Structure to design on (203 residues):
């Protein structure tokens, strides 16, 4: 388990602001707040509930929730050439580590050259540093516009790029995963600062 402890809420006797502790990693932040360093990360109980609700159809056990929700609280391991961002655990063997690295590299290589850069520029133009509201519907509108303009300009992929050509590597960039809950809802919950920082980190 991740050792999460809800310390607020009714009758908990914890923090008066109804908060929870996520004791490791870099904060995904609430409402678009940026990450911090190591040690405890303060996350509101409301945020935990929002993540639970978003993953309600996918996380059937606490172990599922711990795995699927990790990127909402710490930066994902998106290293594509080496295993970065996490220590190799004792139960990992060389073969499983190599497979994980290969899977990340393959997923990242699916991207159309220049498309994610265009997406980042479009999101920056619309949302600035991402510290304000980052509604999923508006994010999708911007990304659809980017895709349309990318097709018109030819890009490196010409007019053959589809929404999935943008969404798959974008999901990987912001969550470190190849699948999961609705991407726009995921990005809205992560917040603009976090999404833009994680995307920029890989470009």
């Amino acid at each position: 388990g991740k050792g999460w402890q809800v310390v607020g809420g009714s009758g908990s006797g914890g923090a008066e602001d109804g908060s929870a502790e996520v004791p490791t990693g870099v904060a995904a932040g609430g409402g678009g707040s940026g990450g911090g360093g190591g040690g405890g990360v303060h996350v509101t109980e409301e945020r935990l509930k929002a993540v639970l609700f978003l993953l309600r159809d996918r996380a059937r056990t606490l172990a599922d929730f711990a795995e699927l929700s990790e990127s909402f609280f710490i930066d994902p391991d998106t290293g594509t050439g080496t295993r970065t961002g996490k220590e190799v655990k004792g139960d990992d063997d060389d073969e499983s580590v190599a497979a994980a690295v290969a899977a990340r590299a393959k997923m990242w290589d699916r991207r159309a050259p220049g498309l994610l850069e265009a997406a980042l520029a479009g999101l920056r133009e619309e949302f600035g540093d991402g510290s304000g509201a980052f509604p999923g519907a508006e994010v999708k509108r911007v990304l659809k516009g980017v895709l349309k303009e990318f097709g018109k300009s030819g890009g490196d992929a010409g007019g053959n790029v589809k929404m999935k050509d943008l969404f798959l590597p974008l999901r990987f960039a912001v969550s470190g995963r190849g699948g999961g809950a609705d991407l726009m809802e995921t990005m809205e919950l992560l917040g603009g600062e976090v999404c833009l920082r994680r995307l920029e980190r890989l470009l």
